[in-house]
Write a structure and sequence with these properties.
16 helices, mainly alpha, about 350 residues, two-stranded antiparallel ribbon, 2 domains, Farnesyl Diphosphate Synthase, about 70% helix, single chain
Length: about 350
Amino acid sequence: MRQAGVAGGRADADLDREAMRRSVADGRTAPMDPDREARVRSAAVGRKEAAPIPAELAQAYRRCQDLHRRHGRSYYLATRLLPAWKRPHVHALYGFARYADEIVDRTDTGTPRDRARRLRDWSGRFLAGLRGEPVDDSLLPAVLHTVEVFDLAPADFAAFLDSMAMDLTVRRYADYPALLSYMEGSAAVIGTLMLPVLGPADAVAAREPARQLGLAFQLTNFLRDVAEDLARDRVYLPEDDLARFGVTIADLHTAATERRATPQLKSLVAYEISRARSHYAAALPGLDLLPGPSRTCVRAAYLLYGAILDEIERADHDVFTRRAVVPVHRRARLLARALRG
């Protein structure tokens, strides 16, 4: 599919970008002025007053939504609480992240070198689209359109793609600072990319809570998926934490094979849960900076992801016997809680 990129867009969009660069020297997004917000709302997908979008672009948005629906159960459910015009853009960001993740995670699609080449090729098409070049892809036009509508930072996308490339070569992390360096691109920037879509009252103040929530979600996924990641020869538990609790890589493999965690492994998981919860706590003040529907959406995601940690604790910190899943009835209660505020 052919789709124009975002560089060469409307002159007023270029002026907006320049004004935002001048207003926030450290690269953080400034709050949207009313005129800018009106232009965003009129260009966004799904608004009644928006101009019709090309069929191929609509198809790309549907592809992103399908990826989100199939793979991001908790997050997709939370996204349903957003205004309809915002949802396609969240689907686009999720689709971008998920597709890159699938390239590096699908070990049945070739060697690490093959997957690295595919990631480079796909990343190259995306970066070309940012420069305004035509893009032949079934998903990227939706992402590029969302970048244009909300003036998203290309540097955040580049950081994300760099972390995805790390997954093809880095298998272990010596300590938590090393893991944080990876998660800056794989998780924290996802939080900052979401901010313009969510529309906080003070985007500068909301930036750090958004980063922290991305880190919290990522750590939750790491803990839930220890066995799954181990099957790909990846360990996202820092090596110095393993050593602190007397756990070896061999112990992880044994637990995965026997589907049973040792007391040492349970203590390690409990420690990592406390670390994840500290990121959730640091993210919490950001909820009050969001407008009503966005706040409800993020609160729902906050509660649903946090409930995964609750399920791990209910299993006595054993992440090997079964995958932690939040029961449907509990997800319903958490959604109701998010709606109540």
